[in-house]
Amino acid sequence: MPATNINDIIALCKRRGFIYQGSEIYGGMQGIYDYGPYGVEMMKNIRDAWWRAMVYERDDVEGMEAALISSRLLWKYSGHEASFSDPLVECKKCGLRMRQDKMKDQTKCDTCGTADLTPPRDYQLMMGLSLGAVADGEINAYLRPETATTTFTNFKNVLDSVPHKLPFGIVQIGKAFRNEISPRGFVFRMREFEQAELQYFVKPGDDEAQFEEWKSARMNWWIMELGIPAEKLRFAPHEKLAHYAKAAVDIEYEFPDGFDEVEGIHNRQDYDLGSHTKGQGELKIMSKVLENKDSTAKLAYSDPQSGESFLPYVIETAIGVNRAMFAAMVQAYTEECLGDGKSRMVLKLPPRISPVKAAVIPLARNVPELVEMANRVVADLRKLGLGRVELENSGNIGKNYRRHDEIGTPVCITVDHQSLEDGRVTLRHRDTMAQERIAVTDVPARLREIIGG
């Protein structure tokens, strides 16, 4: 069964090198985390699974990577500068600052209980920058709070470089930054995080059908790629739509403390291209946008058959990669009773997103022939390009098994004294602990079968 206590996951992440507290040796920073040796591997595997589903398995989606820093004008016309904020309340007694919409009781301080609070004020979530030697502290750029907007501003560049007919999409994976008032839930809400977003451009009128298709596709990805059972996921339609949205729904996962968002799917209409295009008056923009006198590019689509120029609608899907990793770990975390008072903790991750794909273990570390054979097995497996393969040479087979159970390694391969005589090794499977004896020459094909690569 999945984890019932988030603290168990946090302890595992620190102990086994998945996630560390940012700036820990100086007291740490709230909402900032560093990813250790196995955390970076798992994050990479989740990115790869997403990119494979979005780009490599389709003909209608292109990838790009925009800069983390962009002009203030970009965020002015996107609407972020004016509206990307949270209501902030400060306690006059203890000085605590709180998001009003997240307070237990909006009339009392969450810490000291006093009702002596300041009126709510907007708190800007974007991180402003002053670039250049003569900026004099004036904000002229921002660290991006999401990846979507730089996709829209590059719409014409991508379309000119790699022409597509509608519908087609553009994806990005990358860092985003938000000056959160109260980061919470471990890596669930952070000040620096990673997003993977698709912007799918469609003809007006086709948007509702495409919205439903992407809902289905994305739900299926969580089930098939991250190994999360369908009953632990649900669609949650937005009760109140954002100003740009025609429809919006979240995919929510049931964490130990309840359901919460792991992906958002939105019908953004023509708001984004309409906000950033020049010549707004020449186009039939359906959304309410800010008048733009600064853009130098017309972000319209010209139909190759009719010659009509118009603004496509956008269907967006957006996941937090950190949240995806967190949800996968919560779901995979399993404690098993082995009898005789013994137990084990095992991370039953889908093999393709496991940080280590296989561990090769010589039974005795002081026998050169065993170590040499184990190194040959490792070299052969690394040639497959399936991911990280480790040589474990501590000599304690039981401890090695337990360590790799905890980090989710699908299979351990033991080279023993008999291996030197018969050329066979033992594969020990993580989930069942079942063992099979196979020829060392068959190991690469068997691992490929297990991983699915």
Provide an overview of this structure.
With 453 residues, the chain is an alpha+beta fold. It has 2 domains: 6-83 and 146-328, 2-Layer Sandwich (BirA Bifunctional Protein, domain 2), CATH 3.30.930.10; 354-451, 3-Layer(aba) Sandwich (Rossmann fold). 29% of the residues lie in helices and 29% in strands. The protein is globular, with a radius of gyration of 26 Å. The relative contact order is 0.12.
| Number of beta strands | 24
Strand composition percent: 25-35%
Q: What's the CATH class label of the largest domain?
A: Alpha Beta
Low-confidence stretches: none
Sheet with the most strands, sense and barrel status: 7 strands, mixed
CATH topology of the largest domain: BirA Bifunctional Protein, domain 2
Using the CA coordinates, give the radius of gyration: 26 Å
Tell me the span between the first and last alpha carbons.
27 Å
What are the key terms here?
453 residues; alpha+beta; BirA Bifunctional Protein, domain 2; Rossmann fold; 2 domains; 5-stranded mixed beta sheet; 29% strand
Care to give the gist of this entry?
The chain has 453 residues and is an alpha+beta fold. The protein contains 13 helices and 24 strands. It folds into two domains: 261 residues, 2-Layer Sandwich (BirA Bifunctional Protein, domain 2), CATH 3.30.930; 98 residues, Anticodon-binding domain (Rossmann fold), CATH 3.40.50.800.
